[in-house]
Amino acid sequence: MYSVRVEAGFAAAHYLVNYHGKCENLHGHNYKAFLHLEGEELDEGGMLCDFGILKKALRSVAGTLDHTNLNDHPYFADGRPSAEKIARYIFEETEKLIAPLVPARVDVFETDTSRATYRR
Question: Domains of the chain, with CATH numbers?
């Protein structure tokens, strides 16, 4: 099995509804998102996928979140823009851009030590 990974960063603010603690208040993070792709077959160039294609897709999706209040984004209208939901959003939106390829998973780091992962 082959695996490749690309990353993108974005800065965004959010607050968590129905959370009882500091994160109920508006605050921000410098997020890191990692897109993973896996497969058994390489293309005629010997690659699972061109890194440039994956980076372009991930950076495009991350760019829609950069310097925004995530609570204002329609995807997070329920007031729960958690790292877990951000990872799922990035997975689903990136998947649309790289079809027919399907991401293996997306990791989102809120901090260097806190990560959420979404995989289908």
Answer: 2-118 (3.30.479.10)
